[in-house]
Specification:
Radius of gyration: 18 Å
Helix content: 40-55%
Number of helices: 10
Number of domains: 2
Number of strands: 4
Structural class: alpha/beta
Shape: elongated
Largest sheet: 4 strands, parallel
Length: about 200
C-alpha cells in the first residue's frame, strides 16, 4: 500500500514516470539489468532482502549512470553519513512535503545532490563528513552479465539489430548497453571494445 501510494504521488509530479515498483534491493538490480535506461532509483533505507545502503553500493558499482535517492525515516547522523559514504545522490526523510521530494529528485536528475532541509541541518552540524563517496573508483570496469553478453556479440560482429534479436531486447537497449560499455571501459569506438574483450579473454 505504501509503495502504491508513493507511486501515485510520483506520477502526479510533472515530468516523472514510474517505470517499475519493487520490494527489495535484489528485485531492483534485476529490473535495472532488464531496463538500464532508468534515471533515478528511489529506495527505502530498510528492506528485508537487500537494504538501501547495499543497494546503493551495488547500483554505483554495476550501473554508475543511474542515480539513487534514499527515502527513509532514519534521521540519525550516522545513517546519513553511511548513505553519503555509499554514494547516495539524495537523502529524503519520509515526513518531507511533496514539494521537498520533487525538488530533491529534480536536483538529482540534473547531477546535483538532493537533501531535504532536516538532512542539511544534520550535515551542517558535522564538518567531518567527506562528501566524496568511498567507492568512487571501485568497480568502474565491472560489467553486468547483460553487458558481457552484448560485448561478446559485438566482438562477433553482430549488428545492433541482430544483438537485439538474440537477447530479446530492443535495439535502443542494445545501444544503451554499448554506450555504457564505452563509458565504463573508457574507450571511444567499437574497435576499443573489441580490443578490451580480447585483452581480458572475454571471447
Amino acid at each position: 500500500m505504501v509503495v502504491d501510494a508513493l507511486s501515485l504521488l510520483l506520477e502526479s509530479i510533472d515530468g516523472i514516470e514510474v517505470v517499475s515498483k519493487h520490494h527489495d534491493g535484489k528485485e531492483v538490480l534485476v529490473a535495472l539489468e532488464l531496463d538500464p535506461m532508468v534515471d533515478i532509483v528511489l529506495s527505502d533505507l530498510q528492506m528485508e532482502v537487500m537494504g538501501g545502503i547495499e543497494l546503493t553500493l551495488q547500483v554505483r558499482r554495476l550501473f554508475p549512470h543511474v542515480k539513487i535517492c534514499l527515502l527513509t525515516v532514519a534521521d540519525e547522523p550516522e545513517s546519513i553519513k553511511e548513505a553519503i559514504r555509499a554514494g547516495a545522490d539524495g537523502y529524503v526523510l519520509k515526513n518531507a512535503e511533496r514539494e521537498e521530494l520533487e525538488k530533491a529528485l529534480r536536483l538529482i536528475y540534473r547531477g546535483h545532490k538532493g537533501y531535504t532541509q532536516p538532512v542539511l541541518l544534520q550535515l551542517a552540524k558535522d564538518n567531518s563528513i567527506d562528501f566524496k563517496p568511498e567507492i568512487d573508483n571501485i568497480g568502474k570496469n565491472t560489467l553486468t552479465p547483460r553487458e558481457l553478453d552484448v560485448l561478446r556479440l559485438i566482438v562477433q560482429e553482430y549488428s545492433g539489430t541482430q544483438i537485439a534479436e538474440k537477447l530479446f531486447i530492443s535495439s535502443t537497449t542494445v545501444e544503451t548497453h554499448r554506450k555504457h560499455l564505452m563509458q565504463k571501459l573508457a574507450v571511444q569506438t567499437t574497435v576499443g571494445l573489441v580490443k578490451y574483450a580480447i585483452q581480458k579473454n572475454l571471447v
